[in-house]
Design brief:
The chain is 46% helix and 22% strand. The two termini are 20 Å apart. It is of the alpha+beta class and 196 residues long. The chain has a three-stranded antiparallel sheet, covered by helices on one side. Strands 6-7-8 form a three-stranded antiparallel sheet.
């Protein structure tokens, strides 16, 4: 809760996008302190405002976390997904996908690796995308997930098989943004039903 109380007012504040949003509720009216009922009413207003600002702050961070630039690089690679060979003493080199998911809400990034040697390239790639989608709050039927899965050819350094297309992120940016906005709207609607 972002509420502070001083002698003269109750302050409700939240910050996002480099700006601080604050609302003050005075504890004096016409030079006298509020009565107990007026004070409780003012406190309820302040708490309601805090909830509203918290929802706006969370929506901002969700939009920021799910923006196209934060999910897919311009060349088509997925943000936070790297293919590498891991060398450890006493073991043979392991071919893995390394996953790094960073979010405004997390204090530090989450790391995970998926073995390509164990699962095979395509299955390991799909598992990696599923982990990223889960951490980002995207469901398995999200159009963004489909776009991420289509980037497997960029990781393989191949062209798509006959009949399949690879999205050009620069040309399809408006389609991706539209799909992302629809997904975020559906997510918000689902959250309001659950909370409501």
């Amino acid at each position: 809760m972002a509420i502070s109380v001083s002698e003269d007012y109750i302050r409700v504040y939240r910050a996002w996008n480099g700006k601080e949003y604050q609302v003050y509720y005075p504890l004096k009216k016409n030079g006298r302190f509020l009565t107990e009922d007026e004070l409780l009413e003012t406190l309820e207003e302040a708490q309601a405002k805090d909830v509203e600002l918290a929802q706006r702050q969370r929506a901002h961070f969700m939009r920021k976390d799910l923006s196209v630039e934060r999910l897919i690089h311009p060349e088509g690679r997925i943000v936070g997904l790297k293919e590498r060979v891991r060398h450890r003493e006493g073991r043979k080199p392991a071919h893995v996908f390394e996953i790094r998911v960073n979010s405004e809400e997390l204090s530090k990034p989450k790391f995970r690796t998926i073995s390509i040697d164990r699962h095979g390239y395509d299955k390991a790639f799909e598992l990696s995308v599923d982990i990223i989608c889960k951490e980002r709050g995207l469901d398995k039927h999200s159009p963004i997930r489909k776009m991420m899965l289509e980037s497997v050819y960029i990781y393989k350094g191949m062209s798509p098989r006959d009949g399949e297309t690879v999205l050009n992120t620069k040309d399809d940016l408006s389609d991706m943004e539209r799909a992302l906005r629809e997904h975020v709207a559906a997510f918000k609607e689902k959250r309001s039903v659950i909370k409501g």
